[in-house]
Sequence to fold (399 residues):
Amino acid sequence: MFYRRTDVAVVNRSFWPNGQVIGEALLQFAENIGEQRRVVVITQAKGDLRQQLDSAGRGRGVTARSCPARSTSSSSLAVRVGDAVVFMFWVLFTLIRERPRKVYVATDPPVVVPFVVFLYAKCFGAHYYYHVQDIHPEAAGVVYRGGRGVFSILKLLDSLVMRSARGLITLSAEMRNTIRERSGTNSPIYQVANPAVAIQKELKANKERDLVFCGNAGRLQLVPLLVDAIREYLRQGGRMTFTFAGGGIHVPLIEKLAEEEEFVEYLGVVSARAAATIVARHRWALLPLDDRVSPFAFPSKSSSYVMAGCNILAICGEGTSIARWVRENAVGRCCRPDITSLVRCLHEIELQEGVSKGDVTLELEQSLTIDRFVATLTEILGLTTYHEGDRVEQGADEC
Fold:
């Protein structure tokens, strides 16, 4: 027996309370539209999500449909794949049960769940909006070289999903171009920055330490290069401090560096709120990324760094989207990804050569708030009417 048809479904595994930034933003989005429309959130959760929402006084007007989450970032590949498959069937079952007219779906998990949404939309006459936060399988293919046949099939499926979406949302102009070229879609593509936790001015004003890296120390973050450059900089007499926080495959390299060097500190894995406070204590933030993944991803930590009032040292090629973003917004400087260049940049920063003040425009700061993110999603999905000056059309690539 079917329920009365739902107006909007929000599909994403990174939901509140585990997704402390994007999850919080999507919860606020659901709460906002739930005031006047029937909205359902389809996600995975540890424990009873409805009970957690009620205990926190959250989720009014929102129907929560969650299945159990069994994997974590440290789980084996088999467990994580199994969890993703379970979620895929849960999404299909819940969509058929709720029959939403509009669906917001993101790349979490990538390809398979957006494809399920595509199938549902075709069968039930719904519209969906696809938030491409990473372009898969290409982003994964930078690291995992095997399975070309599987990757080709996944790419074809994802391109089909992109062509049929009512609208697409992504993070950078380079990613937008990749989506257009790869899929041939004629759908509008909106460029929307990931939100960040707001920081009190008092915290941002107290810059006690020098450089920070906060986030995933994964295969694409150039951590071995960064560690070697810091070690060489300190060997040459450098006196700046370095703070690391977060998890990832290269944590052992960071832990060893922190054990050997008194100017290096590793704080482990911390919450999003704690991470924001840590970053705000620093003058500079390190933003390294492998150039090969630049057309397919954009580091979400960039928003957090800006909100914390940090200068950004982007370690990447000059022609990448990250380098252009740093230059256009005057939020720091770029450095080529080699040891010699990076050591020289660190010495120049220490001598205060070419340093920006860490100040950002009010427009840039407001564009990274959760409130702006929620308002932009609401408009893109056609769920509200804005005054002409508030429209986001300048962020869309319309054909």
